[in-house]
Amino acid sequence: MKSTTDSHDSAGLPLVINTPGWVKGIGYEILVDMLKYISPTHVVKICISSEIKNLPAGAFWLDEGNTNRVTVIEINSARRDHLKRSLLVQKDSRLLRDLRVMAYFRQCFPSEMDISTIKELARALAAHPPYEISISSVKMKHVHCEVPKTETFYCLNATIIGLAVSSGVSDELPHCVGLGIVRGIDTFKGLLYVITPVPQQTLANVDLLLQGFISIPTCLLQFAWAIDLELATRILEFVYSSFK
User: Fold this and answer.
1) How far apart are alpha carbons 217 and 189 in whole angstroms?
2) For 116, how many CA atoms within 13 A lie in the half-sphere containing its CB?
3) pLDDT tens digits, residue range 70-126?
4) Separation CA 26–CA 169 (nearest Å)
5) 97 sits in which H/E element
6) How many CA atoms lie less than 13 Å away from 237 in the CB half-sphere?
7) Exposed, middle or buried: residue 209 (CB in 10 Å: 0-12, 13-18, 19+)?
8) Strand duo 139-142 + 160-165: pairing
9) Do residues 208 and 166 lie in contact, with contact meaning Cβ atoms separated by under 8 Å?
10) How far apart are the first and last CA of the chain?
11) Dihedral angle of Cα 6, 8, 11, 14, to the nearest 10 degrees
């Protein structure tokens, strides 16, 4: 017979997950994938007065016939002034996702480093020395699409990837240790150049790269291109002056 302490230890605690609640576009697709992966027993949906800003009714992320596996509870928001709020204070889901991505890669630099604007972050990332990952040492998995094997690594350039460690068990999902930006690919040397805040000792265990829906914020790409443009301008000026 187990003691009271043993019973409490083996009972386990419920895990509460606060999802973003995106209702359209790529955000909605990410939310559906999250719910399928988490497989919750109970889902609480908070609805507002604007129907178009609510998620579909019921267990919308499950196929028909599997909806009895989860209890869905729908409640109304305590706030009733959503439609009266100014457009200036409404949150843009895409902007929030971009800000989260930028905040994540800000970790590539020391906290005391003076990076206070998106432009400064873009310049810092463009100048940051990348890690070298041997192509032969990793496998590639495309989460949401199929890519021909001959194009597997070519489609990675200038994308955000998940850095994962294989579980070794076929029916278990890999453990993702962080995100990385593929800055370049050298097919001749068989190397990927990746920028990531993941420590080198952790990165050494990575043997699987995951490509999903997360994309590099456009503002970072624009500033990175501006840096290349400045460099190209200086090179052209040097070449022109040498022929005078």
Assistant:
1) 29
2) 2
3) 888 988 877 655 445 444 444 566 777 888 889 999 999 998 888 888 888 888 888
4) 30
5) helix 93-105
6) 6
7) buried
8) unpaired
9) yes
10) 95
11) -150
- Residue 127 and residue 195 in contact, taking contact as beta carbons nearer than 8 Å: no
Domain boundaries, the chain: 4-83, 129-218
Q: Is the dihedral of CA 156, 161, 165, 169 positive or negative?
A: negative
The b/e string for 49-66 (b: 16+ C-beta within 10 A; e otherwise) is eeeeebbeeebebbeeee
- Non-local CB neighbours of 37 within 8 Å, separated by 6+ positions: 173
- Alpha-carbon distance of 66 to 55, in angstroms, equals 18
Q: What is the pTM of this model?
A: 0.62
pLDDT value for 87: 44
Q: Please state, in angstroms and rounded to a whole number, the distance separating the CA atoms of residues 187 and 196.
A: 20
CA 150 to chain centre: 25
Q: What is the CATH number of domain 129-218?
A: 2.40.30.330
Kindly state the helix (H) or strand (E) to which residue 191 belongs, with its residue range.
strand 191-195
Paired tokens of 243? 């022929």
* Paired tokens of 195: 């920028």
The DSSP secondary structure of 212-244, one letter per residue, reads: -S----HHHHHHHHHHHHHHHHHHHHHHHHHT-
Gap between the Cα atoms of 134 and 138, Å rounded: 7
Q: Read off the tokens for 175.
A: 């453990």
